[in-house]
Design a protein that fits this description.
The protein has 9 helices and 7 strands; from the N terminus they run βαβαβαβααβαβαααβ. By secondary structure, it is an alpha/beta fold. It has a 7-stranded parallel sheet with strand order 3-2-1-4-5-6-7, sandwiched between helices. Helix 1 links the parallel strand 1 and strand 2. Helix 1 packs across helix 9 and helix 4 packs parallel to helix 6. The two termini are 31 Å apart. The chain binds nicotinamide-adenine-dinucleotide (NAD). The site of nicotinamide-adenine-dinucleotide has 31 residues, from helix 1, helix 4 and helix 7. Nicotinamide-adenine-dinucleotide binds next to helix 1, helix 4 and helix 7.
Length: 274
């Protein structure tokens, strides 16, 4: 595979399983060293081992991103170990299927704290580090002449429209799109690219959870909610693979996307077209 990001240092949040793990492995195959910033210490270590077996350096860093006080320590540790940060993929997320009128403040906070608040403060902390890495004469100039960092945030098709059974999740994922645009503007002077991806349906442990929660709410059988979603909503008539999403993220992290910032790309088989 083409080494588009050879020896870049990347942090991927929530990379112990699912899409995040696929992204971490894809970035490693394209030459990056990867930090797995993940809630679950065991899956974090397994993912790190798989990256090492690809001949890249890796660090498993257990963290709860909903506790934003832990984020500064992550950045310090990565810089101590690797000397710099070139790429941040804000993938960690949580979901819950519950009718809008039944949502409690604790439900709201749990979903927003990871998907939106943790995501923003991770971006802020890493952006500060990326700016500090720019040589003084360039940092103080009007415009940096080349890209000094790549940030990719995870939105969702849920953030593009309404979700009566996941209102808090949809709101947090819509906020991710807004934060992506604001950060792209704030960091343009430093030539740090900030973009987002909005996946559709990817059969990961998150979708197993959604399928089970919908089963409880609506009495559907295992796999039925996922099958119905594909049949009714996806023009390409299949679920995404993790690699479908990882390929889009790797593109945004590569020099091929140096002139793209502030965008949210739907990777969803045609569910959303704006
Ligand atoms: N699977 C889909 O169909 C789909 C669709 C649209 C968007 N997304 C988004 O893609 C991203 C990845 O989804 P996935 O399907 O791989 O999910 P997943 O639940 O399978 O994996 C999420 C990972 O993030 C970690 N994580 C969760 N909260 C964390 C926290 N507070 N701190 C650190 N780590 C945390 C989990 O431990 C887990 O390893 C999420 O942001 C999700 O919202 C997924």
């Amino acid at each position: 595979m083409e080494q588009r990001i050879l020896d870049r240092v990347a942090i991927v949040t929530g990379a112990g399983q699912g899409i995040g793990k696929g992204v971490a492995l894809r970035l490693a195959r394209e030459g990056a060293h990867v930090v797995i910033a993940e809630f679950n210490p065991e899956t974090a270590e397994t993912a790190a081992q798989e990256i090492r077996s690809l001949g890249r350096r890796a660090l498993a860093y257990p963290i709860d991103l909903s506790d934003v006080s832990q984020i500064h320590g992550l950045v310090e540790r990565v810089v101590a170990e690797f000397g710099r940060i070139d790429i941040l993929v804000n993938n960690a997320g949580r979901v819950q299927t519950k009718f809008m009128l039944d949502l409690e403040p604790e439900d709201w906070d749990r979903i927003v704290d990871t998907n939106q608040r943790g995501m923003f403060f991770c971006l802020r902390e890493v952006a500060r580090q990326m700016i500090s890495q720019i040589p003084d004469e360039i940092r103080n100039a009007d415009r940096a002449p080349r890209s000094f960092g790549k940030i990719v945030n995870f939105s969702s098709v849920a953030g593009r429209s309404g979700r009566p059974y996941s209102t808090h999740y949809a709101a947090a994922k819509a906020a991710v799109i807004s934060i992506t645009k604001s950060a792209a503007l704030a960091l343009a002077k430093y030539n740090i690219n900030v973009n987002a991806v909005a996946p559709g349906l990817v059969p990961t442990p998150m979708w197993q959870q959604i399928d089970a929660e919908r089963g409880q709410l609506f009495g559907s059988k295992p796999g039925e909610a996922m099958h119905n979603f594909i049949e009714q909503n996806i023009p390409l008539r299949r679920a995404a693979t993790v690699e479908d999403i990882a390929a889009a993220v790797a593109f945004f992290c590569s020099p091929d996307a140096d002139y793209i910032t502030g965008q949210c790309l739907n990777v969803d088989g045609g569910i959303e077209m704006d």
